Amino acid sequence: MNIPDDLVELGRIGEPYGLKGWVNVLPSSEEPDVLLKSKQWWVSRLPASDGAAVRRAAQPKFEDLVFESFRVLQSKPHSSRIVAHLEGIEQPELAAQFKGRRVYVSRARFPAPAEGEYYWIDLVGCEVVNVQSQALGSVIQVVDHGAHPILVVKGAADQEILIPFVAAYVLNVDTQAKQIQADWQDDY
Fold this sequence. Notes:
- This protein is mostly beta strands.
- The chain contains four helices and twelve strands, in the order E-E-H-E-H-E-E-H-E-H-E-E-E-E-E-E.
- It has helices at 33-37, 51-56, 92-96, 120-123, and strands spanning 7-17, 22-27, 40-45, 66-78, 81-86, 102-106, 127-130, 135-144, 149-154, 160-164, 170-174, 179-182.
- Strand 9 (149-154) and strand 10 (160-164) form a beta hairpin.
């Protein structure tokens, strides 16, 4: 089975839900639309042979994980979580074996974002330039600040620059060219 090279982690499986083998998923974001719309999930697990060594690591490396593909028969929001029925999982005892595993979806299967909206994963790796065409660095992370997202930009000499992802400062985003224009200076 070919594992897509564009998998994005979108949640973690918790306790089983109900008596028919449904899984309970804690989404990684407050807007779990991709999980709800995707009909194929990739669920990670540790390899059976050397899982103990990997388990001792604080966070297993992506390349150490084994992925299994599951067709999503049904999914729906439930409180702050998502509950889903995955093909082949029909009993709560079997669903319990998935507790703690991570859920991934291929980036290619994400629904197209609305005009002017972006998936955070698409902003990571973008080069940020200011209105004077000065390179500020590249986006290494997008964090939720509560009021608005913040771009974490790694600049020269590993300096981190934090830029609010709001229209007042972010003037243009071109995810195809992997470039963001911001009204920002490197010494702010």
